[in-house]
Amino acid sequence: MQSLSRSGLRALSLCNILSPLSINESVGFIGALSRFQRQTEALYHPPLMGKPPTWRRRFLCAMLTIAGVTFPYVLLYDTAGIAGFLQLSNRSFLNLNDDAVSDEIKLRTVLKEAAIVDNTVILTMMNEAWAAPGSVLDLFLESFQTGERTVRLLEHLVIVALDEKAYEICKSKHTHCYALKTEGADFSQEKLFLTEDYVKMTWIRINFLRVVLEMGYDFIFTDADIMWFRDHMPSFYKDGDFQIACDRFNGNPDDRTNIINGGFKYIKSNEKTIKFYKYWYEKRVEHPGAHDQDVLNYIKGDQILHDIGLNLKYLPTVDFGGICEPSSDFNQVSTMHANCCIGLIDKLNDLKVILKDWRQYNTLPPSVKGRHEHKWRVPQLCR
Which Pfam families does the entry link to (predicted)? Predict the structure, then answer.
C-alpha cells in the first residue's frame, strides 16, 4: 500500500506542474512520468528470487500501473477543461482543424463568449451576398455605431455565416462569428423571397435557434437588414416567453390578428419555448413550400400554446418599425427593418436612406426633437 500512496501523491501534484505547460510539453511530461512510474515500480517490487508471484501481487501491480499511467491524463483533462485543453483562438473559434473538435463545442464557445450576464445573446444570419463589402453587413454594423448606447451591444452579437466566404468576411469585421454548415446546399448568393432556397434557409434558421434555446441561452434574433438605433431590452414585455415584431400592429400586444414578421424576435430559453420551436419545425411538413413566418401564422392560434402555457407577445411598430409600417416616433424607435421589400439593390437603397434619416434626427436640437415632426423618407425603391 506504500507504493500506491506515493503514486497517488505524485499524480495529485500534476495539476500544479502541468498548468503552465503547453499541450505538447504536457504530453511529453506525462510520457516521461509513465517511464518513471515503471522504474519506480521496479524499485519497490524487485524480483522474488524465483518464487512465482501470487495472484494478489499480480493484481496490485496491475492496479499500480493503471493508476500511474492513466490518472495523470484524467487530471489534465479535468483541470484544463475542454476549452482550455483545445486552446481557444481569439476569434471565438477553436484554433484547430475542423475535424478535431465538434460543431457543438464551437457553438457553445462562441455563445458563452458573447452572452450578456443574464445569458442573452444577439444573433443574426447572413450569406456571402449580404456580407460582401458595401452590402447589408456594413450597414447593419454601422447602425450600431450611430445608435444611442448601441455600440456596446456589438460585444454580444454573434454573426452566423451560411457559407465559407461569409464566415471569412465576418472574421475580418467582427469578433463573434460562427460557421453554420449546410451540407448539400449553397446559400452564398442572394435568395429571393419565397424561392425554394429561401424557404430552406428559413427552416435551417428555425432549427438552429431551437438548438440555441436547448443550450440555455435567451436570444434576440435580428435579420441583418434591420437597423439598430436603441437598446431593445427596456421595450420588451417582462412576462413574454416569445416576442415577435410585426409588419402591421393593431395596438394590442396579445391579439393574434397582428401581422407578424419573423425577422426580429426575443425568445427566452425555457421548456415552453423549446417545445414550441420543435412543434413549429415539425409543422413545416404539413405546409410544403411555406416558409417559417407563414407556418407560424398558421399555428399561432393552435391549442399547444395554451397547453404548454406559452406567452406570445406582439411587438409594437412604434418601437420596432419597418418599411411596412415605419415607427411614428423617432424619440422612441429602437429598430427599423427593410421589410416589405424584395431584392438586395432596393433594400440597400432604402437602408441607406433610413440611416441618413436617423443621422439627421441626431443633429436636431432637443427642442425640435420634442415636436415629433421628423419623418422617415422610406419607402423609396421598396414599393
Answer: Nucleotid_trans
